Structures are given as structure tokens and as C-alpha cells.
Amino acid sequence: MASPITSQENATYFSCACQWLRQLPKKSCKKATNVAKKIKKSGQDDPRRITHSLKVGFALTLVSMFFYVQALYDSFGVNALWAIMTVVVVMEFSVGATLGKGLNRMAATLLGGFLGFGVQQLATLPGKTNQPILLAIFLFIIGAVMTYIRCIPGVKAKYDYGFSIFILTFSLVSISGYRNDESETLELSCKRLFTIIIGSILSMIVSACIFPVWIGEDLHNSVAKNIEKIGDFLEGFINDSFNVSEEKNEKSFAEEYESVLNSKTKEENMANLASWEPRHGKFQFNHPWKQYLKVGNSTRQCAYKIEALDYHIKSKIQITHELRNKIKDTCQHICLESGKALKELSLSIKSMKCLSKTNYKAHIANAKEAIESLSTMLKSNLSGGVVEVNLLEVVAIAAMASLLMDVVISIERISEQVDELASLAHFKSHNNNVHEDQTKATRTRPLPLLREGIMKRFFPRDKMPHHHNNRIHESSICSPKQNRSSTIEVIVQ
Fold first, then answer.
1. How far is CA 283 from the centre of its chain?
2. Which residues are CB-neighbours of 416 under 8 A, at least 6 positions away?
């Protein structure tokens, strides 16, 4: 007879099972709804995904004719499966990726097949007994050498798939000839080679001719958009940062612009794929895709400096309200001019037109002039000798001024990279008379800055504040991600 405890446990398990069964339809319906929402959102975010799916289905339908058409099936037989496998493997989202994989697969299959057949013939010369030994030696040497070459960064980025297919094809052809007849092996290899070539060419034609997705255009727009993002942020940066309150939990620059700071790997991959694409639209053959990587790298360097500046201003630095109001307008003017320069550069890349250099260079010159004005204002206000000066305030303001200077210098580097891109890509000339008229009265010759990252002291020796025994030497404030630190040196003797 079952004990009361066992019966109670069984009743508990039974009730839990019944409850789970009752909730199962509701949970299943909820999960199905969530999956449907994710699928719908994916299509809404990028409708090209739907087009790509339809293109893959269309390519598979075409290549299946090898089985439906009797004449084609009699010629290739079951080897037609390699054409279907090739379409599945080669067909990628963008034209560049599809062309890269297709050309890699065709070349690797052709070279690997011929080399494997040649090695097989060479191994039969000493006799049947020594054939497996020679095949094993050749397989070891070729596999090891090709794998080592495959690990080279430049080769791996562009030809990794081709080397893997080459090793696979060479191994299959060279080994299969040991047990099978030579003529049968050669015929089988040729049929597989033809079906692979047909599948690759079909994939490339469908990808390039039916609603093509050009990865080079995506790279072009991505670099321009990142520059515009930084410009938009700078235009309202100082005003938002100086008004930040302790109760308001605002996002940091790194959280808000994570896609810009971490775009290096994505841009490098896009540049490698874009190099496979033919001439299309505004992009000529041999378009300088590598130059976009230089522009993107300079943009990230600028973003790292803005991140350091954002962290420095939003940290609890001890600056009086009066002094904060004095420097706010000047700092805001620096950021506003810097943002306008970046948006001009972004517009030049987007439109692929050489906008007048006086437009963005005038903004950069104005930003430099504002930095000089900030330095002059700090000298006059901090070295008056009437009011006691807090040395920590001097260091904080000097650090902020130096970081602003680094941001302007980074923007100037971006402008140089964009000018080089415009020269290499042959951007069209664009005469904007309105902008020319607006910049006639504006200083166009950049003012020389102080040494990069170094701030001179803001008051002479004869007008020292009361903290004359203090000495601050080489205070370094920088972003943890940036390659070059900005050194602030304020010496009070």
C-alpha cells in the first residue's frame, strides 16, 4: 500500500503536469507571435533580405533543371547535385560576396582538380607499391603549404574560401584515383567541375542582374553616415553636457555611438567584398575602396577624442558656476563649427561632389580661432591676481581646452582624407555660389594651433595665484581606445 507522502507527491506532480498542459497552448501561441514579429521586423529593417531570399529560391529553381530536363541529366547524371550545392554555398546577400565566392570556388576547383590529377599520374611512375607513399607525401606537402599561405592576413581576408576549396578538391581527386580507374576519375572530375562552374555563374548572374545589392554602396553610405553622426552630436554637445544633472541618467557617448566606435571590422569586411564588384552606378572600376578605410579610421579617432571629452565634462569637475558660464559660449561655438565642418564633409562623400574647400575649411578655421579666444580669455581671467584661483579649476579647464583642440585637429585630418578620396575617386566638381558668397568675409586660412595636445600656462610668472608652490606636471587625459594620448602640461613655478 502506498504511503500518504508518496500519494501526496504524485498528486503534486500530476497537478503540475496538468497546469503545464493547460498553459502550453498559450505559451506556444505567444512564442509563435514573437517569432512572427521578429521576422516582420527583420523585413521592415531591410527589405533587401526578402528580395535576397526570393533570388536564392529562383536560382535553385533554375539549377534544378539539370534533373528535370532529360538531356541535361543524361549528360551530367547525379553530378548535377554539385550545381545545387554550389548555388546554396555561393549565393550571398551582396553582389561582391557572391562574386568573390563564385570566382574563388571556380578557380580553386579548376586548379585543385588539375593539380590532384597531375600528382596522381606522377605517383604511378615508380610503381603501384610506392604510389600510396608518394600520394601521402604530396598530400602532406600541398596541404601544409596551402594552409600556411591561407593563414596570411591579406590572403585570408580575400581568398580564404578559395584556399579551403582548393585543399578539398586536391585531396579528393588525388586520393580517389588510387582505387578507381584513371579515365573514370578524370570523367567524374570534369563533370563536377562543369556543374560547379555552371552553378557559380548562375549564382553570380542572378545576384548581379536581379535587384542587386552592392556592398560598395553600403560602405560608401556607412562612412558618410558615421561622419554625419559625429557632426550632429558635436553641434549640441557642449550645451547638453554643461546642463547635465545628477538626477538625469543620460547615455554616454560610447553607449549612444557604439556602432561608430566599433565599425572597424565591419568596414574592413565590406571593403574586401566591394573590391570584387564590377563598375556600377557612380562607382568606377577599381574604385579606391581602401581609402574609405582611412576615412573611417580617422572618424573613429575623432570619436575616441569626443568620448574622452564627453567623459571629462560629465565627470564631477569642480568649476564655479561663474567660470562655467564664461567658457560655455566659446566651447559651444567650437563644437558648433566642428559639427558643421563634419556635416560638409559627409555631404561631399554622399553626393560624390567636390564641394568648395572654403566651406569646411572656414568652419575649421573658426573653430581654431575660438580655441585661441578661449586661451586668451583664460589668461585674462585666471591671472588677474584679484580673486584666488583654484588650481584644480585651471587643470580641468586646460584639459577640456586641450581635448577640444585634439577634436579640431582630428577633423582636419578627416578633411585631408576626404580630399584624397575625392581625388582618387574623381568626384565631380560642384560650384556652390551661395556658399562662396557666404564665405567671402570669413577667414579661410587656418590659424596655427599650439603644439598638438600641449597647453601653455595661462598666466605669466609675475601674476601668480596664491597656490605658487603647487606643481602639476604631465597630466594625461585620454580615451582608453585612442591610439595617441593628449598630454596636458600646466607648470606653476
1. 20
2. none
Which amino acid type is present at position 177? G
- What single string gives the DSSP state of each residue in 368-425? HHHHHHHHHHHHHHHT-SSSPPPHHHHHHHHHHHHHHHHHHHHHHHHHHHHHHHHHHT
Amino acid at 350: K
Chain segment 314-330, per-residue pLDDT in tens: 776 666 677 777 777 88
Chain CA centroid to CA 264, Å: 4
Cell numbers describing residue 404:
577640444
Structural element, H or E, at residue 488: strand 486-488
Element (H, E) at 353: strand 353-354
Residues of the chain falling short of pLDDT 70? 1-11, 238-250, 316-320, 357-358, 381-391, 430-493
So what's the pLDDT on residue 240? 61
Q: Are 309 and 400 in contact (CB under 8 A)?
A: yes
332 CB neighbour count, 10 Å cutoff: 18
Q: Which of 337, 272, 258 is nearest to 300 (CA)?
A: 258
In DSSP terms, which residues pair with 280 in a beta bridge?
283
pTM of the model: 0.77
Specify the residue for cell string 555631404: 347
Q: How far apart are CA 243 and CA 250, in angstroms?
A: 11
Q: Classify 449 as helix, strand or coil.
A: coil
Which residues, 6+ apart, have CB-to-CB distance to 317 below 8 Å? Answer: 392, 396
Nearest of 291, 273, 290 to residue 215 by alpha carbon: 273
Beta bridge partners of 353: 428
Strands 353-354 vs 428-429: parallel, antiparallel or unpaired: parallel
- Give the span between the Cα atoms of 231 and 118, in whole angstroms: 60
Cβ-defined contacts of 418-424 (< 8 Å, 24+): 418/295, 418/345, 418/348, 418/349, 419/357, 420/291, 420/294, 421/288, 421/291, 421/292, 421/294, 421/295, 421/349, 422/348, 422/354, 424/288, 424/291
How far is it, in rounded angstroms, from Cα 452 to Cα 154? 34
Q: Residue 409 corresponds to which cell in the numbers above?
A: 585637429
**Which residues have CB under 8 Å from 199's CB, separation 6+?**
63, 82, 83, 84, 85, 86, 87, 90
> Residue 472: its pLDDT value, please?
35
